[in-house]
Amino acid sequence: MAARDATHDPALRSWFASANEVTTDFPIQNLPIGIFDRPGEAPRGGIAIGEAVLDLRAAKDARLIAGDAAEAAIGPTLNRLMAMGRPASAALRRQVSAMLAAGASAASHAESILVPMDRARMRLPAKVANFSDFMASYDHCARLGVRRDPKNPLPQAFRQLPVAYHSRASSVRVSGEPVARPNGQWQAQDGAMRFGPTEALDYELELAIWIAGENALGTPVPMSRAPDRIFGYGLLNDWSARDVQRWEMPPLGPFLAKSLSTSVSPWIVTAEALAPFEVAAPVQDPPALPYLDSAWNRSNGALAIRMTAAILTPRMRAEGAAPFVLTEAQFARMYWTAAAMVTHHASNGCNLLPGDLLGSGTVSGPEDTARACLAEIGLTGPVTLPTGETRRWLQDGDEIVFRARAEAPGAVPIGFGECRAVIAPAPGWPQE
C-alpha cells in the first residue's frame, strides 16, 4: 500500500522546466519508469520527466543516485527492480524526486543525464514470463452478454470472482510496433467455414498491471498483501479478432483471437505515484467472499484514471487530422479491483513472478461514450468519423491510440504517455 510523502506534494516543482507545464503527462509528481536506448547503446532504465528521459545509468555514474534499487534499475529490463519489491521502487522514487526538485545541484548535470524524448527509443519495460487477462467491467460484460443471453447477460461467476484467462506472453509488444492482421478460422453467417485474414479486428482499452516480488508455488497472496505485489500500471491494448473469437470461445475460451499481439505502453506509472488517486471501490452485490475483501480495498482499492481510445485512419493522417476519440472511460468504475485480481490469481497457490503482466479487462462504463471496444460501439451501428468514413471493424492502416490521466482534487494530474499501433496487412499464407 502506498503512503503519501514529499514526492506527492502538489507544490513541488522541478528544475527541468517542461516538467512544470500543466499539460505534461510527466510532472515531477509522476516519475514513471521504463527501458530505453539510443542507436549504438545498450538498453537501460530511464524515468520520464517533462519532455525528457532521465538516464538512470548516467545519473548513477554521476553519483546522483545510489544503492541497490538504483543498480537494479539501470539494467536492460526492470525485472530485477521488480523482484526487490515495492520498498525498492519507493526508495528509488524518493532519490529521483529529490534530485530533480527545483534547487537541486543535479541541474548542472542536465546535459549528461537527460535525453530528449524524441531521441530515446522505448523498449518493452520487462521480460514478461506470464500474461493473464481479466474481464472486470460490469458494463462490458453486460452489453456483449445480451447478444448471447438477454435474460442472463453476465457470465455466471462474474459477481463472485474476477474472471480471467491465461494469454500469450511472447506476443506482448511495446507501443509503436505494428500489429499484423492475423489469419484465422471462423464460421460465416451463412454457415460456411472460412480461413483467412480476420474481417473483425478490434481494440480493447485496458490497463496493464505489472507485478512486483514473488510468492512461492503453493503460497497464496491474501488481500492484505496484494497491493504490495503491484509494481505499477500502464496502458494495454488487447487486440481481438472477433470473428475468430466467437467461433473458438465456447469450448475453452479465447485463444488465437487474442494471442495475435498485445500492445503495452513503455512507461510504468508506479503504484507509489498513484497514491493520491486511490478511491473507494464500487459496491459489490452480493458482497465479495471474505478472501476477496478488505477494509483497505473497499476504501482505497480503485483508481481515478480517465482513459481514452482514439483512431487515426490513413485518410485522416493524409489530411493532417487529429486522432478521433472513440472511447472515454473511467477506470475507477471497474467491478473488480487490481488487488482482487492479484489475490484471486494466486488463491490456488499460483506463483506470480516479477514482471508478470495482468490485463485489467476492457475498461467500459455505462455511458455510450464509454464503450471501450468496437464490439460494443457497433451494437448501435458503425461509427462515423469526421472524414465521413465509417468503421465497424479496424481496417489496414488504421492506428489506435490510447491515453490516460490520473486526476483527483488537490493532486497534480499525472499521465501514462501513449500506447499506439498501426494495423498492417495480413501476411500471405505460405505456399507449399
TrEMBL record:
Active-site residue numbers: 140 (proton acceptor)
Residues annotated for Ca(2+) binding in this entry: 133, 204, 206, 238
Keywords attached to this entry: Calcium, Hydrolase, Magnesium, Metal-binding, Phenylalanine catabolism, Tyrosine catabolism
Cofactor(s), names only, from the UniProt record: Ca(2+); Mg(2+)
Pfam family, any one: FAA_hydrolase
Annotated GO biological process: homogentisate catabolic process; L-phenylalanine catabolic process; L-tyrosine catabolic process
E.C. code: 3.7.1.2
Binding site for substrate: 148, 245, 362
GO molecular function (one): fumarylacetoacetase activity
Primary enzyme class: hydrolase
Domain Fumarylacetoacetase-like C-terminal: 132-422
Domain Fumarylacetoacetase N-terminal: 29-125
Pathway in which the depicted protein is active: Amino-acid degradation; L-phenylalanine degradation; acetoacetate and fumarate from L-phenylalanine: step 6/6
Binding site for Mg(2+): 238, 258, 262
Name of this chain's protein: fumarylacetoacetase
Gene symbol of the encoding locus: fahA
